[in-house]
Amino acid sequence: MRYRIALAIIGALATMSAQAGGRASLFDSTTPGGEPRSGFYWGFDLGQSSYGLDRGDLDSELADSLQQSGINVLSGSSETSEDGFTYGIIVGWQFLPWLAVEAAYVDLGDAEYKSNTVISDGVATADLRTTLTAESAGATLSALGILPLGKGWDVYGRVGAYFGSNDATAAVSVDGIAADLDDSSSSQTFLWGGGVGYTRGHWTVRLDYQQFTDVGDDNGFGEVDVDRITFVGLYRFGDTFSRSK
Question: Which of 72, 115, 147, 210 has the fewest CB atoms in 10 Å of its CB?
Fold first, then answer.
C-alpha cells in the first residue's frame, strides 16, 4: 500500500506540473532566457530521526524469550530512546522541471531499549538488565516528482530505495554478570517522502521528510520503520537553474 500511495503522489505532482507548463505567472519553471531548470547539484542535510520502536512489543518478546527457557518475569520496567541525530550527503540531477533523481549517503542515527526486570526460575530470583541498541547507515537512490509553485518555491514527493548497513547490540547483565551479543546485517528497503523547497540563485533550501521502511534484519533483532525530518542545503551548478523571481 505504501508503494502505491507514494507512486500516486509522484505521478500527481508530475502531471500537475506538466499541465501547468503554460501558466508562467503561477508555475514558471524557466529562467528569463527560456532555458529549462536542469542540472547537477550537491549538498547536505541534517535533522532528527525517529525509530518506530514499540516498547510493549519489545517487553512481550523479552518475556516470551525468557519463558521459553523456563524463566518467569516477576516485575520490571522499561524505556525506549527512539529519537536521534541524522545527517546525509546528497548529489542529484534535475532532468526536467518536474523530475529529478538523487543519490545520497545517510546516517539514520540510533535507538535504544532498556529493561530492568526481576526474574525467577522457580527456585531463585535475579535482577536482569537488558539494553538493546540499533543503528543504520547507507546509500539511497530516489526519484523526485516536483511541482513548481512560482517565485522560487516548489513542493515534491519522492520514492526510492535504501541500501542499509545495520548494527544491533544486546547487552545483558544478570546480578552483575554481563554478556554482549552483536548482530550486523545489510538490507535493501523502500523509502518515500516529500517536502517543500525554495531556490534563489544557485542555492536551494528544503524542509524534507522521509520514511525508511523495514530497516534491519527480520531474522536477527527485527525490522523497524525509521522517519527523518531534515533541513537540506543544496548548491546547483549552471546559470540555467536560476528560477524567476
Answer: 72
